[in-house]
Amino acid sequence: MNSETISATSVNQFKNNLKGLLLQPGDEGYDDCRSIWNGMIDHRPSLIVCCENVQDVIASVHFAKENGLPVSVKGGGHGVAGKAVCNDGLMIDFSRMNAVTVDPTSGTAIVQPGAKLGDLDRESSKRGLLTTGGIVSSTGVAGLTLGGGIGYLARKYGLALDNVISLDVITADGNLLHCSKSENTDLFWALRGGGGNFGVVVSFEFQLYKENTNILTAQIFYPMNDARTALIAYRDLMKTAPDELSAYGLIVSIPPVEAFPEELHGTPVCFFLATYAGNHDDGRKLLEPFKNIGNPIMAVVDPLPYEELQKNFDAGVPKGQRYYWKHHLMNQLSDEAIDVFLSFARNKKGPLSLVGFEPLGGAISKVPKDHTAFTGRDANFALGIWTGWMDPSDDDEIIGWAREFYEAMKPFASGGYYSNYFDKDDDSEIADAYGKNYNRLQQVKNKYDPNNFFNQNFNIKSEN
């Protein structure tokens, strides 16, 4: 059934049974609600349900199913591919369901699907507790976690999904199921890495950790002349790094802030960003030597509150601009790989773009490969080509550059993908992304969503 054929009576009946808000095109707030972080996405749902509670979600699933409407789910709205917003369907919006409840006694948090990392960081940090999140505070907890969840604490405590104790999910038949290691275990396995393919998650329970909320942080900016030397030192550091250490080797543009001379604003530089979640003296022994590499423009190694650390990149990735991502997983960084990387990075396209290496390994690699649906536990790095710009007339040039960069780095990749870094043209890579786990994911899909009702995602189809 097409959305245009749904009677006004049915829509009004649906609306009157909701506690939350139902928006249609032309309604006040509709355009704000359908907008997401990536300004390239301009989809228009027929209906948006701003849910207030679980009953609204169940009603939305039933209404969409009865009327043949595609359904998308918007948690934080930060997914670069824009899967949160459908065209001509029903969008479930979770912006009103964003509570985070921390239990300091058990060291756990119950998180609603509209919460962002900043919400979780704030509520947990003030109780001296932390868990793995991403590296941008406006990222939605739900999408990040269902796909993986790489962050500064991942090498010590595992991915965000490794720290999920339980999930509550609405399935395609409108049932509310509790999933954990002892209940609905097949669905619990699939949701941790399989994304939104199996239902709408309405609650996450996370394990938190007693941790010094002031994280020792190195922030060192090198001129591009020192980039090769700095990246080789970075590579060598990570070969023997303890799990407490997480380090990024990036090429970024100098931000327009007072800490840097105005004439350097926008200049490409090599950025070494490292954190040590442990004894600060031990961390300094590893990080201080990086201040002596080449001629740094700025070199700081000091504790930083975790909440502030999580906001480090926020200003550089503003909502509403244009973003396009490509990525590879890598086991090692050879000198040749670094040279090819720099041949592109020196000519970085897009003022908001950053490219570089994200650390994996550590606790991520110690989880058995079949423990969750996430793949890539063997990789030691993720190469990110995270481009960002403002002017639509630059689309072809910047996207073309990103794709060429991606192809040039393919010989150094270890294979496999990280689904959270997929962009809108990566749908064909889904089976490769999940590798040996794909067939098992199909079996779970066949059991809980055989008709592929939840298809507005990087879709895993049932075996039927």
Question: What does the model show?
Answer:
The protein is of the alpha+beta class. The chain folds into three domains: 8-93, 2-Layer Sandwich (Uridine Diphospho-n-acetylenolpyruvylglucosamine Reductase, domain 2), CATH 3.30.43.10; 100-210 and 436-448, Uridine Diphospho-n-acetylenolpyruvylglucosamine Reductase, domain 3 (2-Layer Sandwich); 214-421, Vanillyl-alcohol Oxidase, Chain A, domain 3 (3-Layer(aba) Sandwich), CATH 3.40.462.20. Helices cover 28% and strands 23% of the residues. It has 15 helices and 18 strands. It has helices spanning 8-16, 30-34, 54-66, 117-125, 141-147, 154-157, 185-194, 227-239, 280-287, 306-309, 335-345, 363-366, 395-409, 430-434, 438-448; strands spanning 21-23, 47-50, 71-74, 90-93, 100-103, 108-111, 129-130, 164-170, 176-179, 200-207, 209-210, 214-222, 245-253, 268-276, 298-305, 322-330, 354-359, 381-389. The strands form four sheets. A seven-stranded antiparallel beta sheet has the order 15-12-14-13-17-18-16. Strands 5-6-10-8-9 form a five-stranded antiparallel beta sheet. Strands 1-2-4-3 form a four-stranded mixed beta sheet. A hairpin with a 4-residue loop joins strand 5 (100-103) and strand 6. The chain is globular.
Mean pLDDT: 96
Strand content: 15-25%
What's the level 1 CATH class of the largest domain? Alpha Beta
Domain module count: 3
What's the arrangement of secondary structure elements?
Blueprint: H1 8-16, E1 21-23, H2 30-34, E2 47-50, H3 54-66, E3 71-74, E4 90-93, E5 100-103, E6 108-111, H4 117-125, E7 129-130, H5 141-147, H6 154-157, E8 164-170, E9 176-179, H7 185-194, E10 200-207, E11 209-210, E12 214-222, H8 227-239, E13 245-253, E14 268-276, H9 280-287, E15 298-305, H10 306-309, E16 322-330, H11 335-345, E17 354-359, H12 363-366, E18 381-389, H13 395-409, H14 430-434, H15 438-448
Parallel strand pairs: 2-4, 3-4
Antiparallel strand pairs: 1-2, 5-6, 6-10, 7-11, 8-9, 8-10, 12-14, 12-15, 13-14, 13-17, 16-18, 17-18
